[in-house]
Amino acid sequence: MKKGFQLIILIIAFYSCSSTPITEQVKTDVLNNAHFDKKGFQNIAKYERLAKFLEKNIDTIIEFRYHKNIVTYSRGEGKPDLTYLSDDDCYIFFQGNAQFDITNVPDNQKKELDSLFHTFPEKDLTSFEVCKDRKITIEFKRERFDNGLALLHTLIWNIKPSSKSTYNRDSILTNKCIYRIRLTELGR
Questions:
Q1: Which class for 10: exposed (0-12), middle (13-18), buried (19 or more C-beta within 10 A)?
Q2: Confidence check: pLDDT of 10 > 50
Q3: What is the pLDDT of residues 138-152, one digit of tens each?
Q4: Can you tell me the distance from the alpha carbon of 96 to that of 85, in angstroms, rounded to the nearest whole number?
Q5: How many CA atoms lie within 13 A of 184 on its CB side?
Q6: Using an 8 Å Cβ cutoff, are 132 and 140 in contact?
Q7: pLDDT digits (tens, 9 = 90+) for 160-171
Q8: Nearest to 137 by CA among 145, 146, 128
């Protein structure tokens, strides 16, 4: 009897702590109240220098990261783990994680990339991503909200404006670059 009561209390506690889903109206309101950050416009020349370097070296960067993109799948039950190379379409880089760090590029590109990356204050460059389709994305601001939503401020090269996504707001900066605010759900 006591265990049954404890189980009921545990179930009630679990469901009372679970969060309610974020409504479409809340998402729409957050995106509608978002503002383009002036540093995206003011620093476009610096961001373009980084993007040009990435575009010039995109094939070797992707090839290098592919050969280091090792994934281990634990199968459990005494079975050996499965380790393999994961061939992704895009590779993200940021500081503070060995797998994704900006130093995870060919040796002959490290010095120039480090120099370009560190021309920005830490608050003005969150990450960058290179893709096989030659798309380059530089994230320079991330706004997090208590409800688990986030607005990602990115500059994207080699992509057409997206009018299909409900959760993107685009502004064309140059003939090759789009400033996009993207709403995403990070969790609570």
A1: exposed
A2: no
A3: 999 999 988 889 999
A4: 22
A5: 11
A6: no
A7: 665 567 788 888
A8: 128
